[in-house]
Amino acid sequence: MAATALALYKNAAASWDAPCFEVDTMLIKIASLACTLCLAAVSASSSTRAPLVRLDDATVIGFTEGTSTSFLGIPFAQPPVGKLRLQLPQPVARYSGIINATTFGNQCIQQITAQPIFPASLPPEIPPFVATLAELVDVPQSEDCLNINVIVPAGTRPGDSLPVAAWIYGGGFQVGSNAVRPGAVIVNRSIELGTPVIYVSMNYRLNAFGFLGGSEIQKAGLGNLGLHDQREALRWVQKHISAFGGDPSKVTIWGQSAGSHSVALQMITNGGDTEGLFRAGWMESGSAPPTGSILKLQPTFDYIVSETG
C-alpha cells in the first residue's frame, strides 16, 4: 500500500504545471491518502499476525480461531528413541529457533490388538470400543510423541495468571492421544462463563512403550514410564506456563478412564509427594487401580524380547 501511495506521488509530481497553491493542495491530498493506506496496512498486519510465545531462545508460533489461541505439539521432553527408548523421560535442555505449533504433534504408538491386553472379566463390547479410539484423529503415530498442547483465551499475555486445567487422556493405557479432546471448546466455554482458563493436554507413552513389566524392568527402575511422562509434562507446565499467561500455582490435573486412574496415581505416588506440580485433581470414571506386582508382566517382556531379538 505504501508503494501505491509513492506511485501516486510520482505521477502527480511529473504533471505539476499548475500554480504553487494548486501543487500544495495536491500534496496535502496525496499525503493524506498515503497516511490512510499505511494505517490500513498496519491494521491488516496487526489483525493477521500469528500469536507468538517466547520459550528460552525459541519463538513458538500458534494460531487464533474465534476466542481461543492454540499452541500445539510442543515437545516437552527429548524424543524417547534410540538410547532413550524405554528410559525415563529427559527434559528439553533449552529451546531455540522457531517452533511451528499450528498442528498436533505425533501421537504415541497405539496398541493394534484388543485381545491380550484387557481383563477377561470386562464386557465384550469394551475392548473393541477402546481399540477404535486410536482411529478418532488423523495424526501420525511415532515413538517421538512426547508433546504438549496449550490452548489459551485469545489475547492472553504473560502475567495474566490464569488457572490451568491439565488434561490426561484415557484409553486403557493402550491407545489415546492429546489430539482427541477439543480443548478450544473448553476454553471458549470458560470465557463465556466469565472464568477463563488455560487448557493443557500432554501425550504419554502407551502399551509396552510406556508400561512394560518384568524383572528386568523392575531392576532398572523403569516401570510405568507413561506415568513418568505425565509427570515430566507437569514439570514443563510449572516451568513454562507463565509464558502463555498461566499461573503455575493454580494447576488442576484432570482425566477420564485411564486418565482418571492417572490423576489418582499422580496424587498418591511417592507417598503423596506431588512436587508442587498441581494443587487439585479431577477424576472422571476411575480411581487408582490395584495393579499388583510388575513381575506379572514377565511373559509379555519375554515375548517382546523373543520377537524383536
Automatic annotation (TrEMBL):
<dbReference type="InterPro" id="IPR002018">
    <property type="entry name" value="CarbesteraseB"/>
</dbReference>
<dbReference type="Pfam" id="PF00135">
    <property type="entry name" value="COesterase"/>
</dbReference>
<dbReference type="GO" id="GO:0016787">
    <property type="term" value="F:hydrolase activity"/>
</dbReference>
<dbReference type="InterPro" id="IPR019826">
    <property type="entry name" value="Carboxylesterase_B_AS"/>
</dbReference>
<dbReference type="InterPro" id="IPR050309">
    <property type="entry name" value="Type-B_Carboxylest/Lipase"/>
</dbReference>
<keyword id="KW-0378">Hydrolase</keyword>
<protein>
    <recommendedName>
        <fullName>Carboxylic ester hydrolase</fullName>
        <ecNumber>3.1.1.-</ecNumber>
    </recommendedName>
</protein>
<comment type="similarity">
    <text>Belongs to the type-B carboxylesterase/lipase family.</text>
</comment>
<dbReference type="InterPro" id="IPR029058">
    <property type="entry name" value="AB_hydrolase_fold"/>
</dbReference>
<feature type="domain" description="Carboxylesterase type B">
    <location>
        <begin position="51"/>
        <end position="288"/>
    </location>
</feature>
